[in-house]
Amino acid sequence: MAALQAPLAKSLLELEGVREVLLASGHVTVTKATIADWEELQEVVEKEISQFYQAGKPAVDPDAVESIDPQDFEEGSIEAQILELLEERVKPFVQQDGGDIEFVRFDHKDGSLYVRMVGSCSGCAMSHATLQEGVKNLMDHYLPAVKQIVGLNDEMDEDVPRPGR
User: Fold this and answer.
1) 142 in the same domain as 86
2) Strand order in the sheet with 148-152
3) Residue 7 CB neighbours (<10 A)
4) pLDDT of 141
5) How confident is the model at residue 165 (pLDDT cuts 50, 70, 90)?
6) Which stretch of 30-34, 113-117, 124-128, 144-148 has the lowest confidence by average pLDDT?
7) Local structure of 85: helix, strand or coil
8) Rounded to whole angstroms, how far apart are CA atoms 165 and 152?
9) β-strand 112-119 against 148-152: which pairing, if any?
10) 97 and 134 in a common domain
């Protein structure tokens, strides 16, 4: 989503020293530029967020919100079950660390679940462990039809078909 569609992200990105902003349903993650000092930047960022919300502005343009709703799939389908597990059991923990996980697709032929880690999780060395130990173990327990987890990055992801595209 472009910062123009997310006024809070646009406002934060205009602050000197802010490199990236991730907005999730209950979290705002700000990544600082390498040269920035977080102790100096933190107060400025917190003040900007407080003023933004006090002004009553929407963090994201409601027309720009992208999500894959479990109801986009047939009730009880493997995709709907995967989305429910990701939303309820994976996302809250990943978002606490400043990242997020996105469902891309499920391949019924070989049981591959394609997901993408974003925010601080996209470049984190632990994201592989999160996917292969955390998410895979969860799927093994609840949805044995998921045989493997494939983590995509932005470059790989462009050629992967998505639901609704």
Assistant:
1) yes
2) 99-107, 112-119, 148-152
3) 16
4) 92
5) very low
6) 124-128
7) helix
8) 17
9) parallel
10) yes
Across the range 53-78, mean pLDDT stands at 74
Would residue 132 count as lying in a domain? yes
Structure tokens at 139: 């799927």
Q: Fill in the amino acid letter for 162.
A: R
Residues 6+ apart with CB under 8 A from 95: 24, 25, 26, 27
Q: How many residues does the chain have?
A: 165
Cβ partners under 8 Å of residue 26, min gap 6? 95
Asked, for residue 162, whether it belongs to a domain, the answer is no
Query: E-strand spans in the chain?
Result: 18-24, 27-32, 99-107, 112-119, 148-152
Mean pLDDT of 93-114: 86
101 residue type, one letter: I
Q: Which amino acid is at 5?
A: Q
Contact at 8 Å (CB) between 153 and 122?
yes
Task: Name the residue with tokens 């929407």.
Answer: 58
For the chain, counts of helices (H) and of strands (E): 7, 5
The count of domains in the chain is 2
60 and 76, same structural domain?
no
